[in-house]
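Reopening this ticket.

The earlier resolution said the output was attached, but the attachment link was broken on my side. Pasting everything inline this time so it's all in one place.
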Amino acid sequence: MSTFSPASRMADVTSFLVMDVLERAQALQRTGVNIIHMEIGEPDFATPACIINAAKHALDNGFTHYTHSMGDPDLRETVADHYRNRYGVSVDPGRIFIFPGTSPGMTMLFQTLLDPGDEVILSNPGYACYSSFVHMAGGVPAETLTYEEDGFQFRPEDVAKRITHRTRAILVNSPCNPTGILLEPERMKALAVRAFHVLKLNVYSRADFLLDEEGRLYCLEVNTLPGMTEASLLPKEAKAAGIEYGDLCEWIIKKSLEERYAGERTESL
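Inline output:
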């Protein structure tokens, strides 16, 4: 009898604790226990009628077949319009990919970026799944601690210490799950001066319009910072119970690290 043996890169991929808790809570619910769910990131109301009706309309009108491999062209045009109208950024629809949620987009992103042994700098605390996405691509998470006294902001000098010749990307989750912080503009600029792939995740894109203490919008200029690649991933502004879409946009403002720095990856920030 054959024995299933997973790839060695899966050794460091753990189950998602949130889903472990959810599944245990659901099991208790099936036995009659009254559960208040505080583990999973979804609203406690049903999907709005307008979304349900739009889905029904699509099904009734034959939208049940394979789309373009990158996603429906009309939808990608609409996403490009969104970025142009909201952020003043021109994104070619040919560089937009549609995914059924966060995890597939993140998985493809790191499968595309990483060779075995490549490193991705992540914040700690950070979203629990990010390190697993890196491991699944054969990469190595390089965690950088963030501290309460800094409001859990990246310290650029600490990030610099984590940079090696294998560093491929710095992942910036802003607004951050679980800390809720927006990365301050000056810290973002300090990261963006490197020509690494600085991946800024807009998982909660509406929050980009939060104000700082002086009433100024901030963290929006990430889209135009020199030397930066942004992967704007999976905005949840259309998120509803049971419904989630994702778009992945990537654009490179300056030349790649290999072209610009040619062996100088360890230069301090």
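Reporter confirms the inline version is readable. Confidence is low (pLDDT under 50) at residues 205-224, 229-245, 249-269. Strands lie at 96-99, 119-124, 140-145, 167-173, 197-201, 229-233, 246-252.
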